[in-house]
Write a structure and sequence with these properties.
Layout lengths: L2 H18 L15 E9 L8 H23 L4 H13 L20 E7 L4 E8 L5 H11 L4 E3 H10 L13 H13 L4 H4 L3 E6 L5 E7 L20 E4 L3 E7 L1 H7 L1 H12 L3 H15 L3 E7 L4 E5 L3 E8 L2 E7 L8
Helix pairs in contact: 2-3, 3-4, 4-5, 8-10, 9-10
Length: 339
């Protein structure tokens, strides 16, 4: 038989054999990461004796509401960045937390709010500092990220940008609450702050079903702060950071020290370059904060969805939620998972 004929026949046999090979429609598809979200509502001197049973229940309910808002996005296949935004919005709208409506007073009796958000997919980020009229600063930070070529707007320019994007604007008195006014009067009278009056931030970190990470942080700052003071919350790398495959961080504490250490970026860099766990890296960063005289905490999540809560303060309002359920904790001696 001619060589050409033999070659053609061999090719035909191979083709028939290939076509005859059964293809199973039930072959397993590699599983992707499972969604997971964690939040914090601020760290500081939070002792059991400082909260009544009713107050504790209020905080737990508010944390659960925030987690559920973020989880609702993730359950439907939404993005991590949409989830962290959704999770912090209820806390911005609650008088319980030092963010948005519950923001503390600056020394001059006004409110100046800060927020930041970061998308781990491309490390795009947006932040606002010192806003006084945008109802939800996290939405302004998101607009900076999505609708501008910049990363940060501050002061009147930030408010003007938020208004140009159609966000809800309010009079500064919208943020007034009686318990925050009392705190301001106490600080001004004694000319000193307690640890609780130096703290107060909310934040969220998340991983979605595609493995994307994101982080968000928002705050009213420090009670009786000097007008114009900016803490760590709106600073990418200090309070907020997210990078796919590495980690996402949201911090809360004495901002001046978190800025000096660059807490959020320090944690992610240690995970990325030293192969530490997020918990190990967070502990190193917070020990450095403590060595300078500061305290506070972080929520962290790694590239495969492992969550940790690390803080060197007496307590931290915190919680996490996944397809397996939701848990909250407030005090230092609580184990996450004990509601």
């Amino acid at each position: 038989m001619p060589l050409k004929t033999l070659t053609a026949l061999a090719a035909t046999v191979l083709l028939i054999g290939a076509c005859a090979t059964p293809v199973s429609v039930s072959d397993p598809v590699p599983a992707g990461p499972e969604w997971h979200l964690a939040i914090h509502g601020g760290a500081g001197v939070i002792l059991r004796e400082s909260l009544s049973a009713e107050q504790e229940a209020e905080f737990v309910a508010a944390l659960n509401m925030a987690m559920e808002a973020g989880a609702a996005v993730l359950r439907e296949g939404g993005s991590a960045v949409d989830a962290v935004q959704a999770a912090v919005l209820p806390m911005e709208n609650s008088p319980l937390f030092n963010a948005g409506y519950g923001a503390v007073y600056a020394a001059n009796g006004t409110h100046e709010l800060d927020a930041s958000i970061m998308d781990g997919r491309d490390r795009n980020a947006g932040s606002v500092a010192g806003v006084m009229h945008v109802k939800n600063p996290i939405l302004a930070a998101r607009a900076v990220m999505d609708k501008s070529e910049h990363v940060m707007f501050a002061g009147a320019g930030a408010d003007a940008f938020a208004e140009s994007q159609g966000l809800d604007m309010v009079d500064n008195t919208y943020f007034d609450t009686e318990h925050r006014r009392i705190s301001l009067e106490k600080v001004l009278e004694r000319r000193a702050r307690t640890a609780a009056e130096r703290h107060g931030t909310v934040g969220a970190v998340a991983i979605d079903n595609q493995g994307n990470l994101a982080a968000a942080t928002t705050t009213g700052g420090m009670t009786a702060k000097a007008p114009g003071r900016v803490g760590d919350a709106p600073l990418v790398g200090a309070a907020t950071y997210a990078e796919n495959g590495v980690c996402a961080v949201s911090a809360t504490g004495h901002g001046e020290y978190f800025i000096r250490v660059g807490v959020a970026k320090t944690i992610c860099d240690r995970v990325k370059f030293l192969d530490e766990t997020v918990g190990q890296a967070a502990l190193v960063a917070l020990n450095e904060v403590a060595s300078l005289g500061g305290d506070g905490g972080v929520i962290v999540i790694d590239g495969v969805g492992n969550v940790d809560f690390v803080f060197n303060s007496a307590g931290m309002y915190r919680g996490e939620i996944s397809a397996d359920g939701a848990t909250t904790a407030i005090f230092r001696d609580q184990t996450e998972g004990a509601e």
